[in-house]
Amino acid sequence: MAELEERKKTLIHELDRARAELSAHSRGARAHAHPAVKLRAAFAKNRLIWISGAAVLGLVLAKIPARTKKVVVNRKNEKQMANAGKAGLALGALKMAFDLGKPFIMSWATGRLGDLAKRSNQRHERRY
Q: 126: pLDDT confidence band, cut at 50, 70 and 90?
């Protein structure tokens, strides 16, 4: 019976030791799997190298020439181009005329609608 109790205690002790090792290994694996933790540690250790590398990379990216888009225009028909220019000018003038005439049009329309509403109201009152 004492032998059984001793065996039980040793098994419990071995199980606790194995669990402790497993948790330590899992913490190590978890720290090894997270690149953010590694980057923070590397930055804390070599701050000057990281900052100078970022500055050099920024300088290189700033000096890269911008891509330019090439637009090819076929001018087959000069008359059509002239007509398009005239149409654009006419639409611009028409928009300006409407913008300037909008207050007059709105006052005329509200007065006209007011007159129609009064007439409708008078006809409606005559029926009753």
A: low
For 116, phi and psi rounded to 5 degrees?
-65, -35
SS3 sequence of the chain: CHHHHHHHHHHHHHHHHHHHHHHHHHHHHHHHHCHHHHHHHHHHHCHHHHHHHHHHHHHHHHHCCCCCCCCCCCCCCHHHHHHHHHHHHHHHHHHHHHHHHHHHHHHHHHHHHHHHHHHHHHHHHHHC
Residue boundaries of the structural domains of the chain? 82-128
Q: Would the pTM of this model clear 0.85, i.e. be above it?
A: no
**In this predicted model, what pLDDT tens digit does every residue of 29-80 receive, in sequence order?**
776 777 888 888 889 999 999 999 999 999 999 999 888 888 887 767 777 7
Distances (CA, A) of 86 to 42, 73, 122: 66, 19, 51
